[in-house]
Amino acid sequence: MRRAVGACVAAVVLGAAAPAGAVVGGTPVPDGQLRYVANISIAGAFGCTGTLIAPDWVVTAGHCGSLTGSIVPTPIGMPASTIDVKLASVHTDGSGAEDHKVTQVIVDSDYLVTNGSGNDVTLLQLDHASAVRPVLIAAVGERAIWNAGRLATIAGFGLASENAPQPPDTMQKARVPIRSDADCAAAYPDGLGGGSFDAKTMLCAGYPQGGTDTCQGDSGGPLLAKALDGSLRLVGATSFGDGCGRPGKPGVYARVAEGPIRSFIAR
Predict the structure, then answer these.
(1) What is 181-241 written as a DSSP string?
(2) What is the DSSP letter of 25?
(3) Which residues are catalytic?
(4) Does residue 82 sit in helix, strand or coil?
(5) What pTM does this model have?
(6) 265 has pLDDT over 50
(7) Whether residue 75 sits in one domain with residue 112
(8) What is the DSSP track for 142-192?
């Protein structure tokens, strides 16, 4: 599973490890780009990444918002007062960012130990509307833009390699191919390597040879597909993986654009 950089999310409260992810094999994001990608800190420590999907709502990983992290998935949320969200800055230290407190933490009600690593999303309500333009979740009619084989964009603030001591100074981004559900299931069978693949609530992306992937420090960050008009749409949120950029182990993302998770967000 992905882990947070530095002090882990659940460790702040429970002394337990929690997953997260960032970008391996990426390049720095220039100032002014991907302003809707959120840098999320929990109890004063770097925790996760997220994506602004409405003026006052950010989506991130379930294990980022859950009181128990990924150790024992539960929809009981972290105290909102412990979470800080920064937008509109590519800098890991948050310089120049639009800063927000969180007023409400809503973990997917199906983020349960009985569902394994599925339904891995949390919604964070911000204390005031952001001036940043949110990214749109891919519409049902845009399903073709994230078919298997299409290139998608990943982004995050975390580590640039599996054993790096600290993240780079700037958010990283990369492009990876979306994989078929059959490929994902073969890579993660029966809970091996971090979790079982569930096509209803997950999708995966990455090159067969590895080398480009999400990694520690950015769970909940976006998987973005290009729409017909050239703009980006949100289709996934970083969830888990076996290491970072390993051959045969693509990154796994919460499937936000269709199925149960789309319904949860719409509520």
Answers:
(1) HHHHHHHS-TTGGG----TTTEEEE--TT---EE-TT-TT-EEEEE-TTS-EEEEEEEEE-
(2) S
(3) 63, 120, 219
(4) helix
(5) 0.91
(6) yes
(7) yes
(8) GGGGGSTT-EEEEEESS-SSTT-SS--SB-EEEEEEBPPHHHHHHHS-TTG
Query: Which residues, including other chains, have CB under 8 Å from residue 186's CB and lie 6 or more apart?
Result: none
In Å, what is the CA distance from 90 to each residue of 68, 103, 245? 29, 24, 22
CB 212 within 8 A of CB 26: yes
Structure tokens given for 59? 């989506």
CA distance 225 to 45: 30
114 exposure class (CB count in 10 Å sphere: 0-12, 13-18, 19+): exposed
In a domain, 26, yes or no: no
pLDDT in tens, 92-101: 999 999 999 9
Domain that holds residue 90: 9-19+34-126
